[in-house]
Amino acid sequence: EGKHETLPNTPEALHAWFRSLPQRFASRRIIIAIEASRSALLPVFLQYRDAVDVYWLNPRTLARYRQALRPSGSKSDRLDCELAADIVVAHPEQLHRWEPSDLDTAQLAIEVEQRRHLVDHRTLLANRLKSHLKTYFPQALDWLEDDLTKPFATRFLIRWPTLQALQATSHTAIRRFLRAHRRQLTTRIERLLEELSSRLAITTDAAFVEPAIAYTQALVAQLDCLHASLRSYEQRIAALSQGHPNFQLVTQLPGAGPALRPRLLAALGNDPRRYLSASQLAVVAGIAPLKRSSGKMERTLRRLAFPHFLHQTFIEFAQNSIRWCRWAAAFVESKRQRGWKFYRAIRALAFKWIRILYAMLQTGSPYDEARYEASLAKHQSPYAVAP
After folding, report:
1. Among candidates 312, 270, 315, 274, which has minimal Cα distance to 102?
2. Pair 34, 57: CB distance under 8 Å
């Protein structure tokens, strides 16, 4: 129509605009260009996925296109909209079209990413608590083995926020507490009990101790809430995963435990047509290498623009797989012997796993370790391992 509109930044206006599109354009599919790698509008696009095609535009792509057509440096929202429309109309095959997931996969993808954010926040709080304990109660770190991300650490510090409180408790009561929290009474624990009465606090001055206890309690309360929230997330994620049509595809993957299996499910989805090829999935995830050549110069680089959580999922799976999969360990070792850095070798292994996962998605067949090792041996692969 050649018409420029500015919509109010409200859900009501946005939904009204989407509902008006079929009537305005005779129910033809609508192309939408978004200058972002992520968008808060994704839930809206998902709701109207039967009517719209969404293309992501890298902000750098649009900026360079603007610079090429507007050397003066002029910029406005209206101009950017026009340029974005030009790019999508002229070069749709060069852009990434968003393929919406089914609703079950979409919910799973949201929850596994949110869970990871909560895990990262728990780590941040645990590190902050560890640094704080070093200033007034470093002996607690011996009892907690420096791991403050576990629920046991919060229970321990709620019960004994200071060395004096711990020393005032009988050894029998401490042992009973440890057994109640499924901690083994090892020789190290017995040694800590024997040395407990001789340990000295950094300070007993109330002016320092009371604020220290208050801050510990504040951090512990936040960690305690996070533990409960994470348990709730993990229960929902487990239920969503087990009800997913492709759950059986990921159950036999080496190194994919309860946390990684749902993430791989969310990455693959339920529709074999979601990605045109394994290479496209590798490019979208930022795993595929980026090649640049000019004259006689040719360089292979890693990609810098990608969905970080999706990229992280495949990298973590590849890294875990070398502990449980013989050919994967042999693959990484061979690359290391050629002088590759560890992360580069893991990224190459992730690229290989993506091809395997894509083939699984197309055939609907779960991963079979023995079958794949036999195939490697048949083709005399350098990564084949003896039975």
Report:
1. 270
2. yes
